[in-house]
Amino acid sequence: MNDVVVSVRGLVKRYGEVEALGGVDLDVRRGEIFGLLGPNGAGKTTLIGIVAGMVRATAGSVTVLGKDVVRDYRETRRAVGLVPQEINFDPFFTVEESLHIQAGYFGVRLSEERLTEILSALDLAAKRTAMTRSLSGGMKRRLLIGKALVHEPKVLFLDEPTAGVDVELRQALWRYVRTLRDRGTTVVLTTHYIEEAEELADRIGLIDKGRLLLVEDKAALVARHQGMRLQDIYVSLVSRREPAGGAA
Amino acid sequence: MITLGLRTLFAKEVRRFLRVPGQTLLSPLVTTTLYLAVFGWSLGGRLRDVDGIPYAHFIVPGLVALGVVSNSYLNTASSLFVMKIQGTIVDLLVAPLSYGEILAGFLGAAALRGLLVGGLTWVAGGLAGGFDLAHPIFTLAVLLLVALVFAALGLMTAIWATSFEQVNFFPTFIITPLTFLGGVFYSAHMVPSVLRRFTLANPVFYMVDAVRFGILGRAEAHPVSGLAVLAVLAALTVGGAWALLRSGYKLRG
Q1: Is some CB atom of chain B closer than 8 A to the CB atom of A182?
Q2: CATH number of the domain enclosing A195
Q3: Alpha-carbon distance values, B246 to A57, A69, B168, B252 (Å)
Q4: Residue range A130-180, pLDDT digits in tens
Q5: Angstroms from A45 CA to nearest CA on chain B
């Protein structure tokens, strides 16, 4: 049990009549890259939004490092970093100021050493004093990752981190995610790119229509399906839940 | 306790409005100076005085209150609404800040902007006709309460609003009419009985009147009644804003 850093039990989220999550149970283990794979609208963003504190659950519970995300929100949010799917930036501030502000929200004074380390790792050192509105799309996405890392979270959630980015940036982000995992950060990655989950994840969860279809080690999953590619496994599992002719 | 998180949010909000001083500080000052020029110095010559106070002096407290009302409201309303539109609200929602810290950060910065504009207005009025400040502590307390009331209203509007039109609805159709009909430019005794009754039923009148007592030492109502109205309104609006933040309404899915 000590290896479980995020525990989700019976998680339900309804938006009026629409059920975004229909009773999800999930454990994320310490130090792994967990790939949460599913089509658009499957419930991935809702699930990590509840863990990070952005969304309130209708029913069920979530703990991070054994603490309840509602009752002990200060402790759990300090342990979690979130890179949102949508790019956002505050045009009034520079890259450096944005990182200092985000650290301050978490009660952390960002040291010069840590600031330099984040800027270098994300290839933003040359843009340190640039206003955020002047950054390219790729730089803004890297800044979002930097903001999620300022308080050195134990668990990092990346919500569709490579959606709409070019191949070069995607490769760079993948390398950085592996580096974080190697340093001991648990990473939860949501994606609808199968190759991303195949490339990065240690374990994979398939989610569709708010229900978790399976959770399994990637290697075991592929082996169990007799060497099928993850893409084929995914299509096979999701299509079982679709009416004939439905798109995955 | 003033935590680093609260200090960071407050400082960020203050820096935000100081980055655009032409829009947030100078623009309202220009508007107020025009009011002083037209109503105080031009038409004021014809009105001479109100209850023994030169008209150019009489309107200064109301204009100070008007500056505090508008700018404290606009600061929270525009800042939080733009955060919602830009998506940067996520930065706050995932942080381990309590609702009290978020509320205090936004209201503190908005009150500071309102008081700065109010102070600049008072200086502009003083440079033209002479400085009055009968009860400095009372004036500051009243203006701080006025700022809190309207900053909290701005925060609630920003949480509720889904368009800029909705953000502007409240100042256009409620704040401005209540302020202009709240005795900024006239005494309740000067106007016809219908307007007098409306004025006396308008809570903004008691705010303006309390500021007038603080600055000029003269008031139409008992100054304590203005302070009492303000204290009740501040408790209701700040409490309402806190409850709305805590409910997660339109913020936390």
Answers
A1: no
A2: 3.40.50.300
A3: 15, 15, 24, 10
A4: 999 999 999 999 999 999 999 999 999 999 988 777 888 888 889 999 999
A5: 11
